[in-house]
Design brief:
This protein has about 425 residues and is of the alpha+beta class. It is built from 18 helices and 11 strands. It has one domain: Orthogonal Bundle (Cytochrome p450). The chain is globular, with a radius of gyration of 21 Å.
């Protein structure tokens, strides 16, 4: 790795205390070692907003390098046979592709996954939330993650795609197994689980896509099957891998963002009470949309993203070569005082709020409009139904999953109050 002449810092991404609250260390690093080399992850790490946003827009960085170079040219080891199906999926979907493939895939997916289709889901989302909230909390404490945050986005993205109700319980475990391999350190057990999940996920989606070719329906799988641009269509494997990506990304940020957001609000009660006061108004959705943006900035559900160097370049005095990896600490950039006034304060009226949570540049999250809508509606419905909501144990309020690339609460015990 050609960034080794930078200061060496080991980011403790597997330390439960750091995962629970990474912000004190991130503040220190931004001030003293804003760019460093992590020898454990073998990455250059960026902590400041300006450096992260510049890298996201710089075409010399990409999500993949294998469209330009061989593994030998990059000095990369051969593919790991223990995760061959995961790697094939990862190399074929929209998020980890680069132009011209990325341009083609995003154009075709964009024909089906339109803002109009997303905004048309509001009434259905509100109906699902009403069903989830019916009776919730009447028998005492409950787990906000399992009982409220998780069901909605899985249901919505499943309905949007057209996954039958009987198969939906499989999706969250499959997604959790797949995204576990994005963490810096994994083992044989995690690889085996991800391989099984990719194979099982693919089998289900292959069957559904074949059915939709024969019997089109009003769902996103049908729209992806039919999407055509200048005579070009998604191949079956591209369609399958796109659907897996949409299902994974379509609920990980929503689940983790809502749970972390509610935790932040209940820790600072005046903010929760302000939203409760606004919630009954019919015109209150903009209030909750603005609050959602601040909650996504304040406690980022996707703290660490990666880019790969595509051309020789110099970064803060380090000469980087193609194939070198650079980690972008979104969670740090989102609290950079050079970009945000009082960044460690929760300010639900903050504006503008150009946080990094959904990325920037050509890889800006395609599902951001859906995640934003789900989060705003979920938060408003919760404030309306359970205004007295409180933490069961304010001193030890939540258990985290242990991941840092995708960081979320495994459990959050609350009571209706």
């Amino acid at each position: 790795m050609s960034g080794e002449n930078l200061p060496h810092v080991r980011l403790p991404v597997e330390d439960p205390d750091f995962v629970r609250n990474p912000y004190p260390l991130l503040t220190e690093l931004r001030g003293t070692q804003p760019v460093f080399f992590d020898p454990d992850m073998n990455r250059v790490v960026l902590t400041r907003y300006a450096d992260i946003s510049a890298a996201l827009r710089d075409k010399r960085f990409g999500r993949s390098a294998l469209h330009r170079y061989s593994r030998d040219e990059l000095g990369w080891p051969p593919p790991d046979p223990a995760q061959v199906h995961f790697d094939a999926f990862n190399g074929n979907h929209l998020l980890d592709s680069e132009p011209p493939k990325h341009t083609r895939l995003r154009s075709l997916v964009g024909l089906a996954f339109t803002p109009r289709r997303v905004e048309g889901l509001q009434t259905r989302i509100e109906s699902i939330l009403a069903g989830q909230l019916c009776g919730l909390g009447t028998s005492g404490a409950f787990d906000l993650v399992a009982d409220y945050a998780e069901p909605l986005p899985v249901t919505v993205i499943s309905e949007l795609l057209g996954v039958p109700e009987g198969d939906r319980a499989l999706l969250r475990p499959w997604s959790a197994a797949i995204v576990r391999l994005y963490e810096p350190s994994t083992g044989p057990q995690a690889q085996a689980a991800a391989e099984r999940a990719v194979l099982d996920f693919s089998a289900l989606l292959r069957e559904l896509s074949q059915q939709r070719r024969l019997e089109p329906q009003d769902d996103l799988i049908t729209a992806l099957v039919q999407a055509e641009d200048a005579g070009d269509r998604l191949s079956e494997q591209e369609l399958i891998d796109t659907c897996i990506l949409l299902l994974n990304a379509g609920h990980e940020a929503s689940v983790n963002g809502l749970a972390a957001g509610v935790l932040a609000l209940l820790r600072e009660r005046e903010h929760w009470d302000a939203l409760v006061e606004a919630a009954p108004r019919e015109d209150s959705l903009p209030v909750f949309r603005r609050a959602t943006e601040e909650l996504l900035r304040y406690d980022t559900p996707l703290p660490l993203f990666e880019r790969i160097v595509l051309e020789p370049l110099e970064l803060h005095g380090a000469a980087l070569k193609p194939g070198d990896r650079v980690s972008l600490l979104y969670a740090s950039g989102n609290r950079d005082p050079l970009k945000f006034a009082e960044p460690d304060a929760l300010n639900l009226n903050r504006g503008p709020n150009p946080h990094l949570t959904f990325g920037l540049g050509i890889h800006y999250c395609l599902g951001a409009p859906l995640a934003r809508l789900e989060l705003a509606l979920s938060l408003r419905a919760l404030c309306r139904a359970l205004p007295g909501l409180r933490l069961v144990n304010p001193d030890e309020p939540g258990q985290y999953t242990g991941g840092f690339v995708i960081r979320g609460l495994a459990r959050l015990d609350v009571v209706a109050g």
